[in-house]
Write a structure and sequence with these properties.
about 140 residues; three-stranded antiparallel β-sheet; single chain; mainly alpha; 3 domains; about 50% helix
């Protein structure tokens, strides 16, 4: 309640006095704020690992990016930030008991998405070595394989 009153009062004085050095035109919001070039660069660097949809990229750049251009950008970012290129997860080996087919997934989470289940459920099957859905043996991939 007091916060709304304070913001209303501040808005009154901003409109009444029209202060020369006030950055914001509306109290309690960032409306009217212009970032410096240095601040924009800091924000850009902080968002390097962030993933944008194709629609967002088009909005940000004003143009659609080709698959080749996106690949070059990813390679460039990987060189700049090796932490982003670090492989996460445990490679999972899934063996179909009935057909003998073997599938490899880069992580438990990716395998869980493929099987439409939770990663915790697959972890439990890895620990117990019981067949998942009665026909899949799930195990961590050994280095010698």
């Amino acid at each position: 309640m007091w916060r709304k009153k304070a913001i209303d009062r501040e808005n009154y004085y901003i409109k009444f006095l029209k202060p020369e050095y006030n950055i914001l035109s509306v109290a309690g919001s960032s409306l009217g704020l212009r970032h410096s070039k240095e601040a924009i660069e800091k924000i850009r660097v902080a968002n390097i690992g962030r993933k944008h949809s194709k629609e967002t990229i088009e909005k940000l750049t004003g143009r659609a990016l080709s698959a080749e251009h996106i690949t070059k950008l990813r390679d460039h970012l990987a060189k700049l930030h090796p932490v982003l290129n670090k492989k996460k997860g445990i490679v999972v080996k899934v063996t179909n008991i009935e057909t003998g087919e073997i599938f490899y997934y880069d992580s438990i989470r990716i395998a869980a998405k493929e099987f439409n289940t939770s990663h915790n459920s697959l972890r439990n099957y890895i620990k117990s070595q019981k067949p998942y859905q009665g026909k899949f043996i799930i195990s961590p991939r050994l280095l010698k394989e």
